[in-house]
Design a protein that fits this description.
The structure is a homotetramer.
Chain A lengths: L1 E4 L5 H13 L3 E6 L4 E6 L7 H5 L4 E5 L19 E3 L2 E3 L3 E7 L6 H13 L4 E3 L17 H14 L3 E4 L6 H7 L2 E4 L7 H8 L5 E4 L6 H13 L5 E5 L15 H10 L4 E3 L1 H5 L5 H11 L3 E5 L17 H17 L3 E2 L8
Parallel strand pairs in A: 7-8, 7-14, 7-15, 8-9, 9-10, 10-11, 11-12, 12-13, 13-14
Antiparallel strand pairs in A: 1-3, 1-4, 2-3, 5-6
């Protein structure tokens, strides 16, 4: 890292900072410019109390050079991670499609949703039993009852399921029903939950936080991996910006960048990413074109009766058309859908 | 609320939407414009599945008219809420100053910090035992050991303490040691934790989320109040913007606005709000001038040795000067510090 | 539009607002709810002094229903606008590729760039003669000399050119050399410049502002059209967010949405949109997949010698590969590059 | 500056970059870490084509050390700049209050406004003759007729005036009528206009751009100063964020920070900064408390009849009360209003 001294720092201050860095085990390389001094420091910053150095007299700022994450980065593992969920692979040459309703509402709805998404080529069923809602008065999910329905519906059509866990106390219970544990955007910074799912043997689908930087997102994945679970699927779902016409701003460039920085698979959720079902097909194609490893889509048997997120849900006909179009884009890029119809180019 | 129909919506679609609204118990008032139809709907939206209406054919958007929160708003309770913590009052005429280090580091540090902040006029001691850190490799706090030290240090100088709780499983334990439970910015959307502290009999200091809207912040407080705990102190601590020179953008106008919308007390944390100790005194004065009910400040016996947030911490001399200056501003506005030196104007 | 009255508004205040609206020529439809009154107003808001109504006693807010733009919207013109520049069409079935260096640097550079981009399939040459730079000390462009070089280089290989105009005083001069006038992101809110290019007979490429909403962007195009020039090409080039790893956040969903709202063609600039050449190919494919009508790319004969924006420029080899890959995605979607190699599906 | 090489950069690449830097006149100091190499470069970056270095093989990024602005910074001029406009001083111990309507609407309105603001203690009259409006269909100002009325109204009560200039072609004309030239937020990046007002002998009030960083704002001032005009008054007017309850997010911490970085005076516009007249008094007090050198306020004889920005304008009674309250805060801090009633502490 580089310690930048203030332009009015005294020689004595520079020397004290250099001495402190040496005491912390760094090799130091001061560079005395005409107006300002900077001190290069070589060594392992892991665990070093850099915050303290920042507040030593004369210090302006610290510029880190090395990336703050290790396990998620391509430096330690160059090859793409492929995560197996039953017979579905996420990452690598195959594109995985996760589809289903925002929330499990009742038996009819989730069984019908499961049949629809399976028959149209989805690889994994989604459906929420615990819903994080901005208002305490909105529908909060069917909880364990919902988990049971979800599992039974999935079993009927033989498809794995992903569902969200909101609370450290629920990880064990949700793991009994789910094939993949989802950590939602609002919990990306819930470090206790990250550690808890990190101790699970289930793959974790980790959504990017509402306003999380790419680095924070990767560090959240690092929490899970550092706790022992290397099966992390990243999910871009849009970030918060000043734009109000869409629910979020879907950051597809982040997908392209994270694919370069990390070996972990990245899927894209254009439903939450835009909040408008009319935009979902275009953004699903865009996601595949920029290199995403899969899609996460809200599909509801009848969106006009949905208890949550109706406006961003596809109906079965729209979902079928989307699958065909996505297949074409995938095929053009030499990839194929697992259960869908894309053929290698 | 107002349902706005698309400009190509058919008369039949408008009528179906109106019928659905009637079925849900609303009184409806359609207005047929030359280009577009809107439908006014009067009734209680609490619990109504509006998401479904949004996705009915022909609907463009729904414009809510009534505020989505009830308990936190001035409509139901016009007078300012004053929260008593031992002999300290937060809200109303008195300004409360919460001060102390980012983290409890060891016995010497927290005892010294407690003595310093008490002697210089602080009303409440802060100090973290559980630290939510972006990197899994950063110092995560002393946990229960830290809670004990904090309590003992506070008892020695007879000052109440506030400390953060990160996990639903820790609420009971933290409540044994703390006078006020802090929910941090990263957990403002952790609805399970909000409900859990809502069942506690301790006051809750609720920080605004990293990128939370004012409405989301008030709804988070509504979660706590809806769970039974009406002692909520809101804390503005800066929001995430594109600006990089400061850690966050301190939104003092949000304080002025929330004071109009809600009866709850609002304190301001200029330490996290700016991330730069050199800006803290100015922003502390600004916070009081715009109408905040108190301040939350990072004060460390020796910031250049701090294990976290050193760059934004004040040293004892800086804190003393700040208290004097804040007193003058408070006095000019007819308010006074609880333990500080401001005299009524 | 809907006027929302405050919940403490008196009946008299509601009636005064209604009377004022009637005086302004609106038909009014008051809806008296239990807690709040709203007043629907039907009529033409164009030119109406709504700001004044907003500040009448008892008014909380005004909710506009109709879109504020007319000429750019699909309501008045359903079919896609196709803009002809010499023999190149922008909009409709053909994808246009605009490529070239950030700035015209010297004769050798721009002639070489023109030959490269033409030979690799670009339809239009780009190159800046007037550069808007954040620092007054950065290279500001060759001005009229640069315009001449650009024109000559383009003539040699028979390709149209687009170049930026910064100042109302330069519109005439730039029009002598350019086939398309570019209004840059920093001038999207320069309404005088918009009006001035609106009086020109050259097509206008209008970049989205650094932090412009989609509605503001469309209204900027409305300025140009309202001044008489209906040949507007919109260009998405990324917006400013809190993310720092990339220069901007490329908002591809805005492209999909604008294609639904407006008949104007939309091209995407992934070079400025990401600021990193390593991400440009992925985002170019993504842009085409979401429905963009073309691309605007920075291509430099030797990016490591570029006087501006080197880090986001492609070298000739990278540009050639990008054209091949983009062709495949275009082909899969039934579109084709004008001069490139994509075949209809 | 520091050139950070990629962790897979070869020794040869590092050496080539070092050689290029030497060729450009820099002294170089390479630091070879275990995983990455960085190269310190000492010398004058003004005019150096750093963009090119950025794109040399093996380079990851460049970290600038020195501030990119010179003339506006405290390094070259430590003392506060005080700008004299007739007998009003802006900067230093005195606080200047600029007040008046958003737009000059007609003779009665601007004469009445001038009398009101003068009699209540304002130092400078504001009023727009050229209005930059998002929609081409909104009121655009009375242009030269408005300038004349503004000047006459100001002369009657003997008060200087500030008014906005939108177009390089209008600088001369506006200078005939105005004492201070305003460059609005939408033109902060209009570098040609900055240079043109930089050649004027009138002081320039430079508003921060809608989404401008602090560094960009200071560099915009640097443009004006570099063109020869050192009389620049900075004006914070809120930035664009995701929050929708207010028109902008007023960034008072930027005021405190800019006062440390620059010698130029900084005033605050809480009217545009919040968009809500009910918040203006609180934010005006906050602005003074954080160290602003003055205020810019929208005051209208009858806001409910205003042709623009009515909702954020104060009426005469509100403005009078605000002046009293601001005086108290100013007095507590040892400052005083120029024409107002604050007494030194």
């Amino acid at each position: 890292m580089i310690i930048v001294m203030r332009n009015d720092a005294t020689m004595e201050q520079c020397q004290r900072v250099e001495q402190r860095l040496k005491d912390m085990g760094f090799k130091t390389h001061p560079i005395y410019g005409e107006q300002q001094t900077v001190i290069g420091a070589i060594g392992d910053t892991k665990g070093a109390a850099l915050d303290a150095v920042l507040n030593m007299p004369g210090v302006e700022k610290i510029v880190p050079i090395m990336k703050p994450y290790k396990l998620v980065g391509r430096e330690l593992k160059r090859d793409d991670t492929v995560i197996k969920v039953r017979d579905v692979s996420i990452g690598g040459e195959h594109l995985a499609v996760i589809a289903g309703p925002c929330a499990v509402e009742n038996e009819d709805q989730i069984f019908e949703a499961a049949r629809i998404v399976k028959s149209l080529g989805a690889d994994i069923l989604r459906g929420g039993a615990y819903k994080p809602r901005t208002s305490p008065y909105a529908f909060q999910g069917l909880e364990e009852l919902g988990l049971k329905m979800l599992r039974e519906a999935a079993s009927e059509v033989d498809i794995p399921v992903v569902t969200e866990v909101l609370d450290t106390r629920d990880v064990e219970l949700v793991s009994e029903y789910a094939d993949i544990l989802q950590v939602g955007a609002r919990n990306m910074h819930n470090f206790r939950l990250l550690r808890e799912v990190g101790r699970s043997d289930k793959p974790v689908l980790l959504k990017r936080g509402l306003a999380a930087t790419i680095e924070e997102w990767l560090l959240a994945a690092e929490y899970v991996m550092d706790a022992g679970n290397s099966q992390v699927i990243l999910c871009e779902r849009g970030i918060r910006t000043y734009e109000t016409m869409m629910r979020n701003t879907l950051d597809l460039a982040a997908v392209a960048l994270v694919k370069q920085l990390s070996h972990l698979p990245v899927v894209v959720d254009p439903s939450h990413g835009t909040g408008l079902s009319a935009l979902v097909p275009a953004m699903a194609k865009g996601a595949i074109a920029v290199g995403a490893d899969g899609l996460m889509l809200e599909v509801h048997p009848d969106p006009s009766r949905a208890l949550c997120d109706g406006q961003e849900s596809l109906d079965p006909v729209q979902f079928g058309i989307l699958m065909d179009e996505v297949s074409k884009v995938a095929g053009a890029l030499g990839k194929r859908l697992v259960n869908g119809k894309a053929k290698p180019a």
